Write the structure tokens for this entry.
Amino acid sequence: MTPDAPDSRDLLSFLDFHVAAGVDAALDETPHDRFAEPEAPRRAAREAAEPEAPRRVPPPERPPLEEPALAAPIRQPEAPRAETPSTYGRSAAAAPGEAAGDARELAATAASLEELEGLLARFESCALRFTAKNLVFADGNPQARVMFVGEAPGADEDRIGKPFMGRSGQLLDRMMAAIGLDRTNAYVGNVVPWRPPGNRNPTPQELATCKPFIERQIALADPDILVCLGGVATQALAGTKDGILKSRGRWFPYRTGKREIRLLATLHPAYLLRQPLQKRLAWRDFRALRVALDEGER
């Protein structure tokens, strides 16, 4: 071996280094220093090595499709509207406005309280009639100077057929007795004569339907003083939107159709059973009622 010739051990070490570095194939028979070559030949070599990407030929342009012209819509002649028939005298549940109109027409024909009760018993434009057991018209003396009006019957009243028969009625009797009244010298009724299911408050539609009947009942009884028990009755007859705690103890004018009388708003006995501390307010109202009755006797 000549001094300039590389040792075989050095060559093996050189190959081992490249294998460890990841070189596993020779690309040319002679080595080339790529860093020493100019840029242009290197770029040409890379481009020659890379396969040419196929050119995308754009699809031929298609002429736009013409949209067909829309034909003008053909208007059909409107059919004449049929007038909604009245349910007056029919066995059907009427719409709210129609039911209230039927009630006004029917109530105006009653010449006596007995006739009004008979008309109510045959009135079928209020759905409450079909869920209640009995018509709850009135109790007491229709010739009395004072008339008490509640909102609607409860379960006891619906079963018996008279207003204020349950616990609230017993409390009302005690309240009247405290100022010298009972059902022989007082008249008792309700705005709605049928019990709403579940003892719920009457809806505005139900109140509007039944209101003409209680107004006619008040006009035929013609009391000197009208006492509204609770917010529902007060708002329906006094025309106020205030709650009962704000309107109680106040006097309102009420026209019966013949004359103007006084209306007193007070708390409902059922409310007093739930809120016993409010009985003091109701006692003030009943004392004012007693004073008004005494003044009217002079």
Strands lie at 138-140, 146-150, 187-190, 225-229, 251-255, 260-266. The mean pLDDT is 85. The first strand starts at residue 138 and ends at 140.
